[in-house]
Every structure is written in C-alpha cells, then in structure tokens.
Amino acid sequence: MKRKSEWRPLDFKDIKTASIESRKSKVAIDRLASPLPSRSSFAGFLDSLPRILAANDFKEVVSSIVKAVKEDRMVLVGMGAHPLKVGLGPLIIDLMEQGIIKGLATNGACVVHDVEIAMAGKTSEEVAEGLDTGSFGVTSETAEFINRALKSGSMEGLGLGAAIGKALHQGTGFPYLQMSIYAAAFRLEIPLTVHVAIGTDVVHIHPSADGSIIGGLTYHDFKLFCALVASLEKGIYINLGSAVILPEVFLKALSAARNLGHRVEDFVTVNMDFIQHYRPTQNVVLRPTAKGGKGFALTGHHEIMFPLLAAAVIEGLEHTR
C-alpha cells in the first residue's frame, strides 16, 4: 500500500466520452408533467402528471383496476382500521356499490370503529388520557353490541364479518348506519372477513367477550378469505393501511390457495401506506408476484391517496363506457 505522500489525483485527459444522442436516458420531455389549465377535468389532472416513478405507477395501478373491473375479476381490499379513522368509510361503501370492490378483509379494530360510527357518529378515543386511569377501551355500548352479535353469529354458523354486518343491518339504534362498511357489505352480499388477533381490540377486555367464539368466527373468515384469494387470477389485491396482520394473513391464504391447486399467478398487488413497512413490502408487493403479475407500493397519506385512486378508477371506468 502506498504511503499518503505517494498518492496523486487521477488525470482525466484520456476519459472516453460519448454523445447524448447515443446515450440511454431515463427521462425525456414526453414524460414530463404538464401545467394544468384552469377548469380542467380530473382526467386532465391525471394526464398532467409526469410519466415517471410513483406517478407512472399510480396510473398503471388505475389502469389495472379498471381492466379488472371491466373483465369482472376480483378486486379485493385488505385494510387496517386507520383508513376508517381518517374518514374513508363512505368511499369504500361507494366502491362496493359500484361493483368495483368485490371483497373486503379487515382487522378487528375496524369492527370497533365501524360500529361506533354507525352507533354514535363518532369514534377513536384519546388513548393517552384514558390509559393512565385504566379507562381506555371500556366503552360499554361498543363491546356489548359486538360481543352479543358474535354470539348470535356463532349460533347461526356465520363468520365474524357477516355476524357484525347482519347485526348492524337488522338492528336498531344506529342513526348513522349508512356509514357502516359491514352493514353495506351485508346488504350488498359482498364477502367481508375479519381477522382478529386476540388481545389487540378493546372489546376483548370486557366481561362479555368469549375467546372461543371470537376464535371460531375469525377462523371461519380466514377460510373464506382463502377462497377470495384463490379467485385473484387476473385480479387486484390492495393492502390499505395494515402493517402486520393483513399482510401475514394474505401470504398464508395465497399459499393455501396454491397448495389446493388454484392458479393465482398473474395478478396485481398494491400496498398503500404512508410508511412502507417490511411485511407489506415482502408479503404483498414482492413475494406474491414473484411467479408473475406485478406489485406496486403507493406511499402517502390514506386520506389523500385513496380518494385520488377511487376517483381515478371511477373516471377511468366512465371513459371506457
């Protein structure tokens, strides 16, 4: 090894140069953004986006969903509770009513927030304030309704999602029922599954909770979810705001479907979150599409990104009609 005094800067006089005309370039003017004229349509806004990176991915996701809907393929959404907490319930319901979303999978916290919105028009406690005194998660009306609905659903052989949906749809005392995704799914006969991890939801600490019933109903829903995943060929799977539970459940459901001989290879997966986590990246975007299809990661706040996606898909469907 040379001593420090022996090192000299490289001389660039013999560098071999090339022309920009022959060089490959990743960015060209036909891919740049366009200024948006006043009073433009939403389609005009989409066309004005650059055809680069995430903007291009967004457009490709929209086109894939539009194509899947037109071909009557499965569009399946797996979601955590955060999308409901930031106000996306009415959009989810609208997409179900329009025949765009054909199946839903949720975690247990979604049930809590959805029921409270239907029941009281409000949800989401101040956790820090209640945790100090042990008053967090002890709302009686929420737990009593949910746990009673699950017991009734168990006796009827329903899954957890259907049990909640039926109890809401046929119940009384829900002045904001039109805001419930579970009631809407039951009314529209769209399969909606719930995947509960015992101890993660506030209703589990109430005296009315029955672990055996919760476990039985959520296991029923897991097998139903496997059937939905088995129908994903040429379809779409969107993971909306679930960092752990739904990505893990999706991966096992996909393995079960393939093990049983269902072809699920050529499909599109989309992970939508404001931070890209390890499990959704691996279990939604990369691993499931390794045999074919394509995975996308759209990063941004749910309350902005999902309404944009919904509007773009609806616009795209209207144009194709």
Please describe what this structure looks like.
The radius of gyration is 24 Å and the shape is globular. The N and C termini lie far apart (about 70 Å). With about 325 residues, the chain is of the alpha/beta class. It has 13 helices and six strands. It has a single domain (about 55-320), classed as 3-Layer(aba) Sandwich (Deoxyhypusine Synthase), CATH 3.40.910. The mean pLDDT is about 95. Helix 7 (about 140-155) packs across helix 10 (about 210-230), helix 8 (about 160-170) crosses helix 9 (about 180-190) and helix 11 (about 245-260) runs parallel beside helix 12.
Overall pLDDT: 94
Helix content: 40-55%
Largest sheet composition: 6 strands, parallel
Number of helices: 13
Beta-strand fraction estimate: 5-15%
Could you give the order of strands across the largest sheet? Answer: 3-2-1-4-5-6
CATH homologous superfamily label: Deoxyhypusine synthase
Inertia-based shape: globular
Stretches where pLDDT is under 50 for at least 5 consecutive residues are none
